Automatic annotation (TrEMBL):
One of its GO terms (molecular function) is hydrolase activity. This is Glyoxylase, beta-lactamase superfamily II. Pfam families: Lactamase_B (PF00753). Keywords: Hydrolase, Metal-binding, Zinc. It comes from the Bacteria. SMART domains: Lactamase_B (SM00849). Its cofactor is Zn(2+). The keyword Hydrolase applies. It comes from Alteribacillus bidgolensis. The keyword ATP-binding does not apply. Residues 12-192 form the Metallo-beta-lactamase domain. The lineage of its organism: Bacteria, Bacillati, Bacillota, Bacilli, Bacillales.
Length: 211
């Protein structure tokens, strides 16, 4: 199993493509620039099986419609944000980019609760990690020792909580109760910036000093 980080869209949000030796793939958070993503997928002869959204802020969903239609694949999103794909006020695009509001059809599958998720050859442990947004989900892939966590935990930082339905203490609880329980060598595939590890953030992240 391998994965590729591809910054996309107006905020250069990290999209991730996890793929196996048989060219099966899943896509996390295609934030924009659909043609760049499609070109990379096609160059590498990958066959996407699904789009997994850590949450539905506009900078994580900009290429959802194009990629979904191009590869005829399903979209997974937490049910607490089921209306965000269709509502530019909820996903933030109306506030931040105005006339270029971003929308998509609703997700095909609405996540409710935690547990195992298997798509094609990929198995994930799903964790509800709200705080940055109410429906934030982190996907732990044990085979690659990686958690795809969106905007929950960053290298030296944490997700912002000043957006609608964000909550600082809820975010800290999510990080402490879910992410920091993972093995310290777990790679954190962040929604923005460089990849880090759980151990590194436990040791040096200034927002986690109390843990």
């Amino acid at each position: 199993m391998k994965w590729k980080q591809i910054p996309l869209g107006p905020l250069q949000t990290n999209c991730y493509v996890l793929y196996d030796s048989d060219k099966n793939a899943v896509i996390f958070d295609p934030g924009g620039d659909a043609q760049i993503l499609k070109s990379w997928l096609n160059e590498n002869k990958l066959i996407p099986a699904a789009i997994l959204l850590t949450h539905a802020h506009f900078d994580h969903i900009g290429a959802v419609s194009d990629i979904r239609q191009s590869y005829d694949i399903d979209v997974y999103l937490h049910e607490k944000e089921k209306d965000w794909l269709t509502d530019p006020n909820k996903n933030g695009s109306a506030l931040f980019i105005g006339n270029s509001s971003i929308t998509s059809a609703q997700a095909d599958h609405h996540i409710n609760g935690e547990g195992n998720l298997t798509i094609s050859t990929f198995s994930f442990e799903m964790y509800e990690t709200p705080g940055h947004s109410p429906g934030s989900v982190s996907f732990y892939h044990s085979e690659s020792e990686t958690i795809f966590s969106g905007d929950v935990l960053f290298s030296g930082g944490i997700g912002r909580t000043d957006l609608p339905e964000g909550n600082h203490q809820t975010l800290l609880n999510s990080i402490h109760d879910k992410l920091l329980e993972l093995p310290e060598n777990t790679q954190v595939a962040c929604g923005h910036g460089p990849v880090t590890t759980i151990g590194t953030e436990m040791d040096s992240n200034p927002f986690l000093n109390g843990f």
